[in-house]
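User: I'm curious whether this sequence folds into something compact or stays loose and floppy. Could you predict its structure so I can see for myself?
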Amino acid sequence: MGRKGGGKKAFLKGVVAKPDADEVSATAIDDQAEGGPSSADTQTETKRSDIENGSASCSPAHLPEVTSTAQDLESESRGQLTQRHKKEAKALKEATKRLGKKKKDDVARLETEMDERHAAEAAALEQRERDAAGPQEETTDILATDLYSFSLSAAETQKQKQPTKAQKRRQHQADRDAEREAELEAERAQQGESEQAVEDKQLREMLTPLGLTIRAIQPDGHCMYRAVQDQLNLRSNGDSHAAEDVAELRKKTADYIRHHQDDFLPFLIQDLDEDDLETSFEQYCQDIRDTAAWGGQTELNALAHVLQHHIKVYAAGLPVVVMGQQYQGERQEPLAVCYLRHAFALGEHYNSVVPAEAASSDDEAAFEQIPSSS
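Assistant: Here's the prediction. I'll summarize afterward.
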């Protein structure tokens, strides 16, 4: 039967400095550790007693000797590494009990050294496992990361494409209007005279007694701004606004509405996103300035303030509306435009209204030739 206490013997050999030249035999230490009979002399017993009580003079303590070679460590599996670490920790725990309470610093140092070595060995094992796995696992990780990024990008793109509540509401209204217009068109086809013809007739009956007629404006989304520009050119007489083009009129309109948000916001609610009024209001102004977004009464009102000139709006079957009444003056002639609801299949339109004597045959022909859709 083999002797016990080999681990303790190895530890004591490493931590105890001999008080004289005589070596305490390994057999005597083993037997003393087991509590059995010893062949060592009384002096040896006294020395061991001093060591156990912490009163003997000792050199700095060391970890129990590690007998594994570098080759053993490299071939060691994760399970084997874990088991060895447990055994070494247990051996150290049993061995340090013999140092006594007065050797707390040595005990702490021994535990720290062991923990650091164990951590280093575990890290080395993980590195060996990664190296053994090769580039395949690395490629899989890269593909997984790319796929995740693509999924996030696709989800973000889908989110951006989803229309806002205001856009859905406007589209729904546009669809209903188009459906209704198709129904009316079918009815008009059966009834004979179209709404467009009726509106044109009523408007001319309103303008002729006033010595006015219509100058046609191309329906390209800029019609209201082009009609005002035509009026400025007609009444220029050195007016600084006459040289302004449509882009400049749009920019000034957008800036005025943006700077007077409280005045215009109540009239724009139906065109904005109720969940984010600030953002959608800013986008509305941006569209006025940078796109061919159709301009209506709100924008015409803003233009009256920008130009500080009152504007008369004629419409069939409705009283004349004056924008910017505070700018009326005895010597200032109004800018005049007409609003048509049925001039084109796609919706509303503005034309310029000019004195009959200022109109040419080309104006009349142009109005007659404008297509019924745009």
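Summary: The first helix runs from residue 6 to 15. The first strand starts at residue 212 and ends at 215.
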